[in-house]
Amino acid sequence: MQRNILNPLPTQPMSSALPTKKIYNAPKPGQSFAETLKETIHVKKEMLSISKHADFRLKQRNISISPQTWKEVESKVALAKEKGVKEPLVLLKNAALIISAKNGIVITAMDRQEAGSQIFTNIDGTIIID
């Protein structure tokens, strides 16, 4: 009797080529699990991410936004989200951003002068930060 083995099992375990990444915050001494979980969720909710399209537009138009302004935008978008706004237009001194408050993503960006000649649709709120 002859055995034909088409796909033999590997003799060594396969290792993942992707590096492992820490995705949680270490608990503080004396902090309960519930407090750590609430803090982690709160931090994740307030952070905005930038879509590839918006990142391209920011670089293309040489628009830079300071970390302090980003924090203000994040807090205002979180407040707007609590009030039921889903896609606000955020007007800054030098830029206009359209953000998905639901997903926490900056959808697109343009400079403030360009925004003056545009018609914005599907926007259900406006945030002005000067």
Summarize the structure.
With 130 residues, the protein is of the alpha/beta class. The protein has helices at 33-46, 52-60, 67-82, 112-115, and strands at residues 49-50, 88-91, 95-100, 105-111, 125-128. A 5-stranded mixed sheet has the order 1-4-3-2-5.
Describe the structure.
The protein has 130 residues and is α/β, with parallel strands linked by helices. The chain contains 4 helices and 5 strands; from the N terminus they run αβααβββαβ. It has a domain at 48-128. 33% of the residues lie in helices and 18% in strands. Strands 1-4-3-2-5 form a 5-stranded mixed beta sheet. The longest helix has 16 residues, at 67-82. The relative contact order is 0.15. The mean pLDDT is 83. InterPro entries: Flagellar_put (IPR013367). It comes from Rossellomorea aquimaris. Keywords: Cell projection, Cilium, Flagellum. Residues 1-20 are annotated as: Disordered.
Determine the fraction of residues in helical runs and give it as a percent range. 25-40%
Count of DSSP strands:
5
Low-confidence stretches: none
Strand content: 15-25%
What gyration radius follows from the Cα positions, in whole Å? 23 Å
User: How are the strands of the largest sheet arranged?
Assistant: 1-4-3-2-5
- How many angstroms separate the termini? 83 Å
Shape field: extended
Q: Which class best fits the helix and strand makeup?
A: alpha/beta
Count of alpha/pi helices: 4
